[in-house]
Fold these 2 entries.
Entry 1:
Amino acid sequence: MTKTVKIANVIIGGNNKVAVQSMANIKTEKVDLLVSQILDLEKAGCDIIRVAVKDENDAIALKSVKKQIHIPLVADIHFDYRLAIKSVENGADKVRINPGNIGSEENVKKVAECLKYYGVPVRVGSNTGSIEKEFLKKYGKNEVSLVESALKNVSALEKYGVENIVISTKASSVPLTYKAYKYLASKTDYPLHLGVTESGTYESGIVKSSAGIGALLLDGIGSTIRVSLASNPVNEVYVAKKILRSVGLENDYCEVISCPTCGRTEYNSIELAEKVEKLTAHIKKPLKIAVMGCVVNGPGEAMDADLGIAGSKDFCVIFKKGEVVKKVPFDSAEQELISEIEKIEKLL
C-alpha cells in the first residue's frame, strides 16, 4: 500500500479512490475562460485540475481561479523555480516540477522550503524526453533509466525534507509505460500518477491510455490518472471514468451493456443502446441495463442485468435478471424500456 498525499480536499494513495485528473488547455491568465472550462471538467467528474504556469501573470492568476472552482488546483512549472514559489504563494494546491530543469541546487532548496512552509505536495517524475543523461548512457532508453531518473528527482527534494511527493514515469509507448510503472512500484511507496504521455489523437489516445492505464490499475498500481488526448479536456475525464469503471474501481453509475449485433438482429439495438446510455448518464448508483440484439442469447448473456431488452422476429422482450417480464411491439419498444428505466430510477 502506498503513502497518502493530501491535495486540498482530495486524498490520494492508501485505500482512497483513484482520482481523475485533467489539464486545462487555456492560458492561465485568461481567468474567466479558464474557470469556465474547469467548471465543465468538474461536471464531467474531474477530481484534480492542472494548469500551465508559463509566466508571472499565470502564477498571480491562480488566486482568482482558485476562488471560483471546487477542485484542487495544480500548477505545472518548468525551468523557472520562481514560478513554483509564486504559484504556491498564490494558492496552488500542488505543483508539478522537474528539479532537473529549474536550475541550481540552491533553487531546488528554495522550492523545497516553500513547499514545506505551505504544506503543499509536489509531483515529480520523468518521461522519455526528460531522462537524465547519466541514466540514458548507463541503461539506454528503457524502464530502468526512466525510473532511476524519476527517483533522482525525488531524492533531490527528499534531501530538503519534502515528503508529500507523487511520482510519474510516462512514455508514449504503452509497453514501456507499463514496465516503467511496474518497476517504479517495486522501488517506492509514494503514490503514483498514471498516464501514457503523447498518446495521440482522440481515438488512438483512448486505445493507448485504456491499454496502459487499465493494465496497471488491474495490477493494483496507481493512485491518480490522467488520460492525455489531443481533444477537449472534458473528453479526457469521460475516458478516465470509463477506464475506472471497466476495471471495477468505480461502481456508482449506470452500466449499459449491448451485444455487437449480427444477422439475427431485427431492430436497431445499436441506436437504442446509445440513447439509453445518454438517458442514464446522470445516475450515480449501481445499475446495469442491457440492450441486446436478439432473444437467442440476450436474456441469458445479460441475466445479471437489472433490466434489459432483446429483439425477436416480430417483437421485443423486456427482461429483468434474465427473466422475461413482457413482450412489446417494435414500434413501442423504446418507450417501454424508457418507462421501465424511470420506474427503477424512482426506487434508487
Entry 2:
Amino acid sequence: MRNNKALVIVAILLLLVALGGGYLWSQGIIGSGAETEVVETTPTPQITMIDIVVAAQDIPAGQQLKEADGAVKLQSWPEDSLPIKYIESLEAVEGQFARMDIARGMPVLPSTLGQSGGRLSVYGSAAALFDDKSRRAYVIPMDTQGAVAWAIQPGDRVDVLAAIELMPVDTEFQTRLPNSFIPLEGSGGGTDEQVQGLVAGLEYRYGRFEDLPNGTPAFIIPPAGQSTPSYLVVQMTIQDAIVWHVGIWANDEESTTAGTAATGETPEGEGETSISISSEETTAAAPPLPPEQRGMDSILPVTLLISPQDALVLKYLQTMGADLDLVLRSTGDESPVITEAVWFRYVIDRYQIPATLPDLPVAPTPLSAPLEFSTPTPPPEE
C-alpha cells in the first residue's frame, strides 16, 4: 500500500515537471538555444525651437511686407536648422520691400529685404544674367535680311558680315578724288615768278587731254554730278557671337502689368500706393513679337554676347556706316574660320568674269520683273 502511494506521488511530480517544461518551452524561455537580449531605450533628445519670421505666402520681388496683409508670420524653427542670419520679430520687417522672390514657408532673411528708394534688386537686370563672364552684351539693329529672315533665336551662334565702301582720296587732303583746281593768273610768260593771283570765279576739275574721234583735241573731265566709283569690300569680322535676345528688353514692372492686362487678373493690393524702383530697375526679356509683326520691313534690336574687343569692332563698324548682316552657324559649331576679303577684283578673278564689255550684235532683254519680298499685313485687332 505504501509502495502504491509512493508511485502516485512520483507520477504526480513527473507530470508537474512535464507540464512546467512544456510551458517554458512554449514561451521560448528554454529550448531556443539563444540568449535573451536586453534592449536599452535611448531617451529622446529635446529639440530647441525658436520663433522666426517666415513668408506666409509667395512674396514677389518688390512687394511691401505687412503683417496685416498676411505676407509674413512667426513660426517655430529648429535651432540646429536656423540660417546664419534670421529675423525674430514682425516689427523688424514691417513696411520693408522684398528684394527677391520669397517662397511660402521660407525664412525672411535680412539680405532679402530693402527700404523704399534703395537698391531693391539683388541680381541687377535680367539682361546681365549670362554665364560667360568674358563676354559683353552689345545691341545692333537688324533687318529681315541681316537677321536671317528672323530665324535667329536666343542661344544661336552667329558670325557678323561687314560690307565697307572704300573710295580714292587725296593723300594730303583726305578728300575724294578727283580734285578741283583754280588756274592762276600771270603777268607775262607764265613762269612761277610772274604769278600774281588767281583767276576769279573760275574752278575746274582735273581731267586729261584727249583727241576726239574727229581729231579735235579736248579736255576730258568727269560728268557733272557724278563722282569717282567706290570700292566695295565684304569680310567676315566677328565670329561665334551668341544671340542673347531679339527685340526690346522690358522691365519687370511693365512686363507684370502687360501680363495682367492680357490675362484679365487683378494684382493683389490694387489701389495701394505703388513703389517706383527708379535707377536700378530689374529688366526682363519682353515677349517675342508675333510673326506678323516681324515683317520684311521690320527693324529690331538684336543683343549679342561678344568679347570686349569685338564690342569695339562693332561700335566702329556701326559708326562708320558699314552694312552689317548676321550668318547663322550650325548648332554646336564654335570653331573659328579664316576667310578672304571679297571685292570686285576677287569676284572677277575667281569666277572668270570678263573685264571688257561684249561686242555682240545682240543684247539680252528681261523676261519678267525680279521677285521682291512682300510685307505681311497684320491681322485686324479684335
